[in-house]
Each structure stands twice: as structure tokens, then as C-alpha cells.
Amino acid sequence: MIAARRRVEICARDLPGAPADPAEAVGKARELGFGGVHFPSVTAISARHEARQLAEFAEFAAEQQVNVSLAVGMLNAYRLERAAELLAAGSGDLLRGFDRTLASAAALGVHELTVIVGTEADRFDPAIPWPEQLRATGDLLARLAPVLRDAGSRLLIKTHEEITTFEIVRLVEAVGPDVLGVAFDPVNVLIRLEDPVAAARRVAPHTRAIHLDDAWLCQTPRGLARRMCPLGRGILDWPPQLPEDTRLVLDFHRAELELPYFDQTWLAAQPDATCAELAALAAHAAADREPVSDLGVRLTAALDALPR
Q1: pLDDT given for residue 242 in this prediction
Q2: pLDDT for position 245
Q3: Do 61 and 24 touch, CB atoms closer than 8 A?
Q4: Could you state, in chain order, the average pLDDT of each consecutive group of 10 residues for the chain (308 residues)?
Q5: Burial class (CB in 10 A: 0-12, 13-18, 19+), 276
């Protein structure tokens, strides 16, 4: 068994029927025994950041004994069009929209918001080298830091498919651990040739949330591939990675991604990769197999792995 279900939040999109109504999402989470719901944005709860609507929803969630957590989408200095909700909240001014979003989150009792830097395609964009994207995004986060400090809030950079734990730690240390932390998602670090156990140790001082899912590593003619599978049936060693004071979020991944490390061009784009961690991953690899893409099957397995 991985953890008591009441310790775990579930992503709103992964609830049965993926309810668009936030109150319905809270009700379904409570019915299933989860302790919280992770929403993709403040606007999933109040499209116009209406104070009364936010206050009423916060009161409702508290009555249901269901925690609310939030993400803010993507922040990449070269992809600001992806921050459309933040820009809209500030009438085109990112800083103002960010400030308004933090205030709305605070009205919901949320002071730590998950953020994603980009996509795997961004890492391999020939027009804008990935190190330049990281540099500029670090500068952007530094500009947002005073707003975060004033709000008493923190952004949690998710270990998404495009970024390594090494890169995230460098961003956190450069901008400040008082305003940045880590949302550790172990099935994603596989894509960057990182051993989840070693990666967990790297980000441990800054980890504020852990995303739960599982995967197989499969051998392919180009190297390895990540194939999604039910929680508790893959390669991840969960209990050692679950400190008592860290939020847990059930988060079903959809993408089936490759680790084509036989390709020297691809490998060159992983400068933090080490032989030791690649060897650790290879030791888990098995023959290729079909992923388990049925979210109903994966939710059932998660309910079994997460007792009430």
C-alpha cells in the first residue's frame, strides 16, 4: 500500500467524467475518499476571479473536508502565449495578472501553485536553444519573485517531460527557495534519463508536492520508452519517496514518450545525464509492451493501492 487515500489529492481531470463544475469535482473526490482536488488554474473555479465566488467555494470545500490546490499553467519566457490566463487576468500585463491570480489563490487558502516550464518539443527547438529558454525563464521568475514574496506564496516547478531535476534545482537556488519549490513527478524524470531515487534526493530540500503515477520502462530499437501503467505495478519505489509533510497528488499521465539514447544528437541534449543513472534505468527495462491507457482501469488500481 502506498499511502492512505485521505492524504492524497486527485487531479480534477482524472476524476470519473472529468467534471467541469468544481463543486462536482470536490463532491466526487470526497465520495472516492480523496483528501483534495488539484485544479489546473484559478479560473477553473472562478473564470473572472470573483471574490464572492471564490469565498463561497473555499467555504464549501472546507465543509466537505476536501483540500484545494492549484496550478498556473506554463511559464516560459519564450512562450508567453501559453500564459494566456495570467495575461487575461492582468488585461495584457503579466505581472498584474500574476498578482491577481495569487490573490485569488490566497482567497482559496492556496499559497503554493504548480507551474510547468514547457514541453519536450521546447527542449529540442532548433530556433531557441534550451539553455537560452532556461536563462530567460529564470529572469522572468526573478521578476515575479517580489510579487510572490508580497503574497507569501511560492511557485512549485514541476518535473515535467522537458526539464531535469538538475535544471530545476539551479532555478530554485538562483531565484530563491522562499519563492520557488519543486513538484516532484517521478515518472517524468525517466524521460530525461534520471533515476527516480537519485532525482528524489536531488530535489528533496525543495520538494513540496509529489505526483503519483507509475510506468514501465521498455526496450526499443532506439533505446528505452516510458509506458504508462497502473499505480503500484511499475518501476517506481513509492514508500521511500513519500515524506509525511509533503502533499501527494494522483496525476494520470497520457503521453507515451521515448528515451532514444542510442541517438547521439538526442543524448547530447541531456548534458546532466550520468552513466550511473542510465545504468539504473536500464536495469529496470523489460521487453516492450502495450501501455495501460484506460484511465478507468488506472483509477481502480489506484483506489486499491491507496486505502481509505
Answers
A1: 85
A2: 85
A3: no
A4: 94 97 98 98 98 98 98 98 98 98 98 98 97 98 98 98 98 98 98 97 97 98 97 91 90 97 95 96 96 98 96
A5: exposed
Q: Is 48 exposed, middle or buried (0-12, 13-18, 19+ CB in 10 A)?
A: exposed
Order the strands of the 258-259 sheet from edge to edge: 214-220, 223-229, 258-259
* Angstrom distance (rounded) from CA 16 to CA 31: 11
- Distance CA(261)–CA(73), nearest Å, equals 29
Rg, the chain, Cα only: 19
Determine phi and psi for 77, rounding to 5 degrees: -60, -25
CA–CA separation, 19 and 13 (whole Å): 7
Answer yes or no: are the C-beta atoms of 215 and 285 closer than 8 Å.
no
CA 137 to chain centre: 17
Q: Which residues of 96-110 are buried (b: 16+ CB within 10 A; e: fewer)?
A: ebbbbbbbbbebbeb
3-class DSSP state of 265: helix
CA distances from 107 to 22, 29, 35, 85, 236 (A): 15, 21, 19, 18, 36
Residue 131 · residue 138 · CB < 8 Å:
no
Residue with cell 519566457: 77
CA-based end-to-end distance of the chain: 11
Q: Return the percent helix, strand and coil in the chain, to nearest 5.
A: 45, 20, 35
Amino acid residing at 221: P
Cα–Cα dist 262/139, whole Å: 34
Give pLDDT, residue 238.
87
Distance of CA 56 to the CA centre of its chain: 27
